[in-house]
C-alpha cells in the first residue's frame, strides 16, 4: 500500500512564502534603517558646525546624507595623525593634564580612555575566547567571554587556596553591551571553540543562531607575558 503524498494547502504555502520573505527582507530592512539612522545622527551633530562656504548643501540646495559623517571621519583621522607626532603629543598631554586636575572629569576621562584604548587597540587580545560557567546554579550554564587571568591584588586575594582565577565577562541576552565581570576558578570554566563573533550572534539571537561546530579537542593554555587564556585546538 503506497502512501498518499501530503497535500499542502494554499494557506500553508502562503504562510511559508511570507515567512521566507520575512527572513530575507527583515534583516535587510533593519540593516538599512540602522545605517541611515546612524548617518542622520552623525550629520545632526557635525553639520551645524560646518561653515556654509564649505557645506555643499549651501551651493546645491540639497541635503547630502553622510556629509557630516564623512567630515567627522576625516577630522578624527587628521587629529590622530597630528597626535602621533611630537608636537601633537605635547598638545594632547597638555590637554589631558588639565583634565586630570578636575575632580570629577578626570575619573570619567581616564575610565573612557582606558576602555577605548582596550577596545580599539590593533593587537588587543581581549575577549578572543568564549567559554561556559555554571550560573546561576549547578547544572545551569551561562555563556561568557574570557578576558585574562587574575593578576595583582585580585590574584593575591583569590588565589590563596592555590586555585587560579580567570576574569570573565557575562553579558545578558539580547543586548551584550552590559553585563557582569566575574572571577571564576579556571577549573570551573569550559572553553568553547566558537569565535567571539559567533558567541555574540548566539547571545543576540537568544540561542536561535547556533554556530557550526566540528568535534575537536580543546584545552586551555596560558601564553604571553600577560598570561592570556587562549584556545588550543588539537589537529
Automatic annotation (TrEMBL):
PANTHER family, sorted: COV-LIKE PROTEIN 1, PROTEIN LIKE COV 2
Transmembrane segments annotated in the record for this chain: 18-39, 59-82
UniProt keyword terms in alphabetical order: Membrane, Transmembrane, Transmembrane helix
Presence of the UniProt keyword Acyltransferase in the record: no
Superkingdom of this protein's organism: Bacteria
Name used for this protein in its record: DUF502 domain-containing protein
Family matches, as InterPro entries: COV1-like
Pfam families xrefs: DUF502
Keyword Cell division: no
